[in-house]
Design goal:
This protein is mostly beta strands. The chain contains one helix and ten strands.
Length: about 130
């Protein structure tokens, strides 16, 4: 590659990343249900999946009484692009007296994954049993 080509790529990369060097976030929202009923509270966490080439900050959200969530990363709306492992924590009152199995709070055991995409809506529907 010529000197001009390398310089152009470096400048283009700078603008794609952003002048501030901040992580680019895209909106992610969805719902969580357990045994066919909305999870009425708790916390959902999206952990970038390094096994699938993703690295960066965690995204998380409080789960609303209707099971809906909208992710935040460092207090800003959205999550980084790429594959994520998902964990959930709830209390017994969030599930009408029962509780989620403990595996859902461990990213290695939850079995829940989602790919956040740059150019399309990221609507994540999580149905646990």
């Amino acid at each position: 590659m010529s000197g001009f080509g390398r310089h152009f790529c470096a400048v283009l990369g700078f603008f794609l990343i952003g002048c501030s060097g901040e992580t680019r976030l895209v909106p992610v929202e969805g719902t969580v249900s357990y045994a066919g009923q909305p999870v009425t509270g708790g916390v959902i966490v999206f952990c970038p999946d390094s096994n699938r080439g993703n690295d960066g900050p965690l995204a998380q959200a409080a789960i609303a009484p209707d099971g809906h969530f909208s992710l935040l990363t460092d207090g800003k709306p959205g999550a980084i692009v790429g594959w994520h492992r998902i964990t959930l924590t709830t209390s017994p009152q969030d599930l009408n007296g029962s509780s989620l199995p403990g595996r859902y709070s461990n990213p290695d055991l939850s079995g829940q994954f989602f790919e956040v995409k740059q150019t399309q809506p990221n609507n994540c529907q999580i149905r646990l049993d």
